Amino acid sequence: MGWGHAPCPPSQLEDLASGEWIDKYITESGFHRNVFVLISLVDMYAKCGSMEKARQLFYGMVERGIICWSAMIKGYASDGLPKEAHDLFFEMQRENLRPDCYAMVGVLSACVRLGALELGNWAKEMLDANEFLLNLVLGIALIDFYAKCGSIAQAVDIFIMMKEKDRVITHVKASHRWDEAEKVRLTLNEKGMQKLPGCSWVEVDGVVHEFLVGDTSYPMSAKIYEKLESLFKELREVGYSSTIEFVFFDIEEKEKEYFLGCHSQKLAVVFFLINTGANDIIRVVKNLCVCGHCHEAIKLISKVTGKEIIIRDNNRFHCFREGSCSCGDYW
């Protein structure tokens, strides 16, 4: 096995314990001076949200390539540290390093959190000047940036330019523009493009379990849904109500309530609650951005269960403790 690639699985699943074990083994084995191994470790710690450890490794390196800088910038942005991401990006500029698309995604995300529209526009001009290919990753970052800064016309312009449009529809739906979202969806369906289903992963006893939205195929499905219903009764007692406006479909209210309860991250959280001890931290990875309803529900779940719940979606980390989230309800 090449140790330059070994940390990848822990980073993809946000398995910090496994990554720390690999880090220790690498140090004991004398591989810690290898620049490729160090870059992989920085990337692993950044993706697992352990930014202090990533920072220590980063500044201890003699050689730091663009991949390493990008991992740190994107890591800071994902971990809710936009100023650090912004500052590191400009430190990289002073080193005369040309950013890659991942560094640009990180700084655009930081600009959103900082409310820095002018800085984001500067980043967009830099993309144009350096002839960056407008791929899916960059396109979504730009649309997210302009939409959250209120520049809808510019977001639409980017959308029109993109070749891959499926995942971008979420930003239209999130504005409650159902008719427009449905028109775009029908157009994509006519072109044979299908929506990416919501999927979440959680590790229990060394085994990774996968859940899809509305999943009933899992062997423990009956028990999971029974526990979920019981949990929602507890949530209602502390003020929870189904926020059906977060359902991105124009359907009946009862259907919306059922759909909301079946989101994959809720199923993963409940599965973990059923199968683990009282003091274990719940860590879930989701392939899409966490929706507003799940965000509100999981805040309350952390309150009624006393659990720390960490969710890594495709945008950032959310650390839920005692009824609040590290993102400050802005993501």
Could you walk me through the main structural features you see in this protein, from its secondary elements to its overall organization?
With 331 residues, the protein is an alpha+beta fold. The protein folds into two domains: 11-190, Serine Threonine Protein Phosphatase 5, Tetratricopeptide repeat (Alpha Horseshoe), CATH 1.25.40; 199-325, no CATH class. The protein is built from 16 helices and six strands. The protein has helices at 8-13, 16-29, 35-47, 51-60, 66-78, 82-94, 101-114, 117-129, 136-148, 152-161, 169-173, 178-190, 221-237, 253-261, 264-275, 292-305, and strands spanning 199-204, 207-212, 282-286, 309-312, 317-321, 324-325. Strands 2-1-3-4-5-6 form a six-stranded mixed beta sheet, covered by helices on one side. Helix 4 (51-60) packs antiparallel against helix 5, helix 5 (66-78) runs antiparallel to helix 6 (82-94) and helix 7 packs antiparallel against helix 8. It is globular. The two termini are 37 Å apart. PPR repeats lie at residues 34-64, 65-99. This is DYW domain-containing protein. Belongs to the PPR family. PCMP-H subfamily. Pfam families: DYW_deaminase (PF14432), Eplus_motif (PF20430), PPR (PF01535), PPR_2 (PF13041). GO terms for molecular function: RNA binding; zinc ion binding.
